[in-house]
Amino acid sequence: MLKLDVNFFDWTILAIYFTLVVAIGVLARRAIATSEDFLLAGRSLPAWVTGIAFISANLGAIEILGMAANGAQYGMSTLHFYWIGAVPAMVFLGLVMMPFYYGSRVRTVPEFLLRRFNPATHLFNAVSFAAAAVLTAGVNLFALALVINALIGWPIWVSIMISAGFVLAYITLGGLSGAIYNEVLQFFVIVAGLVPLVVIGLHSVGGYAGLKEKVTHTALGPDSFSTWSGTAVGNWSNPLGDWIGIVMGLGFVLSFGYWTTNFAEVQRALSAKDLNSAQRTPLIGSYPKIFIPALTIIPGLIALVLVPKLGQVDKAGDPTGITYNYAIPALMNKFLPNGTLGIALAGLLAAFMAGMAANISSFNTVFTYDIWQTYLVKGRRDGYYLKVGRIVTVVGILIGIGTAFIASGYGNIMNYIQLLFSYFNAPLFATFIVAMFWKRATPWAGFWGLIAGSVGAAAMHFGGYHIAYFARAGVTNDQMLNFYGALTAFVADVIVTVAVTMVTTPKPEAELAGLVYGVPDPNAPDPNSVPKPPWWASPKLLGGTSLGIVLVLSFIFV
Amino acid sequence: MVDPASDATPAAAETPQSAASKLFDIRLMIGGLFTVYGVMLTVAGLFTSDADLRKASGININLILGIGMLLLGGFFLAWHRLSPKRVEPPTDQQDRTDSP
Predict the structure, then answer these.
(1) What is A8-414's CATH number, 1.20.1440.60, 1.10.246.40, 3.40.1190.20, 1.20.1730.10?
(2) A412 pLDDT exceeds 70?
């Protein structure tokens, strides 16, 4: 039904792209002599590279297809995922948190918890992160196989093996440099593939005004072009629920948790060559993030207007037409001639692989440094951990293949991913913000706070289905429940962290140097000796401008 | 797979030097790829069939995208040429040992 009309021209484009993908891995291999070269790209990359990789690691195909699906399903309210749910957190990471991460020279996010709290906190976080990372890698892999199966017709298992093979090739050889370089390349290719869809799509529905007018006549209705309508607390009708859930749950807890403590993201910044570049990594990434909705939500809405029966289900809940997740492929099929089609397909496939590679390349680092080197086999030479890192990469990909099928039971991929985030990431931000700004917080408070937060998230998720407020017309709003689950996790984490701190002993201040606000690292280089960056590289200017643009756009699309 | 005997010496005794400065410049790759794609699409755009044109609601998308990709490719190649990658000498900060 949706099979793309791929011809020799498109195949040539794909072949060139995937040759280059492997070539990057092979060429990047020369730059690897130490475990840090392999797992952190030798901390040598310029800010524009890490900045694009920062956004690209998140711009996997699941994100692209999922956000287009959300656009078609929820309308412009989906913008909240970008302007409330991403940009402020990225600016906060760059301006406030990065000095603690990069300045303390930790190699991973869990390692920060080890030095700030204790091994128990560290192990809990390292293991849960590693598990979530391979799981997400598997989700990406399975989604990729489904799309290839639908669009090109290859059997699922063939797609899984081939795409896992490509990822294996470039990240086992090239390490994080290979992953990051491919993410940068992929970013430009996916943009080149999506822009034509938006241009042709808008042209054929009569421009933005035409789109707005036509969407009004669909099931989404006139409110679909307003981001804040129906968000009143107590009487919500917005597809994302009330404003407390959106602002506090999605904006403050979920997105800050994801962008500031998810190592797959923070790792990109840690691979930057100096503190200023590390700070600028999420800030540079925030600019494309502001405008990506034009490439995801708009195509989703165009597809809603132009693709018959998009997202409709029969009484049993089975789709009668093309599901929301295929909004973008459906438009590719409808509009793109061979050539441009090949570019778009290359971008989409690359985005799937990037989603998997980002997770594997953060998994291998956490496993090698935080689990293997810290607890299992300590004190070997660096070359040993380089070997371990390579082996763990291969093992991670094998586990990813194995877990690919866990994802098969879920329809809206995005909801599933967010569910994972709400368990693992929601309490994390609470713990980190307390850790960085309250030097009294004790080691065991860190641990029990995280546990309480995770339990809180899970409890809200399971219990929320029995709370009438989250349901409309008898159906529970999953997104809203996720937001409130995150909020629950945050509150539970903070309460327990404070309570446990009251009855346990804090760390001596000397051990917290460079990790907590107000406790400077005596070994840190004198700030006056570090060359001052030029005005255009000032993190404050970059972050402030980014927030300003979001503010203006938010008023336009209110 | 890993020989334990040869790796059993204390850590940090002889950590090898980072080879990160040998990393190639990604701008060359982006520039090269987009130039090649740009040429392919532009040429295809010059010979667009009526059917393809109708499919894309009257827009010669191969030609437009081809030119756009050529421009972006040219930008990256020019940037690389005008400001080649500098190999920075190791600073004090980089010399600090990273092992805990």
Answers:
(1) 1.20.1730.10
(2) no
A382 in reach of chain B (CB within 8 A): yes
Exposure of A240 in the CB half-sphere (CA atoms within 13 A): 29
Q: Which residues of A252-288 are buried (b: 16+ CB within 10 A; e: fewer)?
A: bbbbbbbbbbbbbbbbbbbbbbbbbbbbbbbbbbbbb
- Our count of domains for chain B comes to 1
- Domain interval for residue B52: 24-84
Q: Which residue of A has its CA nearest to B56?
A: A335
Q: What is the pLDDT of residues A467-489, one digit of tens each?
A: 777 777 667 777 787 788 888 88
Q: How far is B72 from chain A (nearest CA, A)?
A: 9
Residues ≥6 apart with Cβ < 8 Å to A127: A371
Six token digits for residue A498: 């404070």
Q: Which residues pair with A472 in a beta bridge?
A: A475
With beta carbons under 8 A apart, name residues in chain B contacting A34: 15-19
- For an interface test with A, give the residue of B27, B48, B61, B83 to mutate (most A CBs within 10 A): B61
A362/A313 Cα distance (integer angstroms): 38
Q: Are A288 and A301 in contact (CB under 8 A)?
A: no
* Listed range (A109-113, A310-314, B75-79) with the worst mean pLDDT: A310-314
In contact, A489 and A463? CB cutoff 8 Å: no
Model's pTM, two decimal places? 0.88
Query: Nearest CB to B59: which of A37, A49, A200?
Result: A200
pLDDT in tens, A203-257: 998 888 888 888 887 777 777 777 777 776 766 777 777 777 777 777 778 888 8
pLDDT (tens digit per residue) in A158-187: 888 888 888 898 899 989 999 999 999 999
- CA A283, CA A452: separation in Å to the nearest integer? 32
Q: Is residue B64 in a domain? A: yes
Rounded to a whole number, what is the distance in Å from the CA of A38 to chain B's nearest CA? Answer: 9
Token pair belonging to A34: 């130490």
Which residue of A105, A188, A338 is in closest CB contact with B34?
Answer: A188
The contacts of residue A144 (CB under 8 Å, 6+ apart) are A61, A159, A160, A163, A349, A352, A353, A356
Looking up tokens 């099928």 gives A405
- Structural domain contains residue B62: yes
Q: Measured between CA atoms, how close is A76 to chain B, in angstroms?
A: 25
- Residue at A393: amino acid letter: T
For residue A8, give both structure tokens. Answer: 């020799």
Instruction: Check CB contact under 8 Å for A42 and B23.
Output: yes
Please tell me the distance from the alpha carbon of residue A13 to that of residue A20, in angstroms, as a whole number.
Answer: 11
Cα distances from A88 to residues A131, A335, A343, B66, in angstroms, run 27, 35, 32, 35
**Domain presence at residue B8:** no
Q: What gap in Å lies between CA A451 and CA A42, rounded to an integer?
A: 34
Residues 6+ apart with CB under 8 A from A504: A442, A443, A444, A445
Q: What is the DSSP string of A500-531?
A: HHHHSPPPPGGGGTTTSTT---TTSPPTTTSP
d(CA A98, CA A286) in angstroms, rounded, equals 15
Residue B19 covered by a domain: no
Q: What is the DSSP string of A51-62?
A: HHHHHHTT--HH
- Per-residue pLDDT tens digits for A262-311: 898 999 999 998 889 999 999 999 999 999 988 998 999 898 888 877 77
The residue ranges of every structural domain in chain A are 8-414
Nearest CA in chain B to A18: B33
Task: Please determine, for the modelled complex, whether the ipTM score is greater than 0.90.
Answer: no
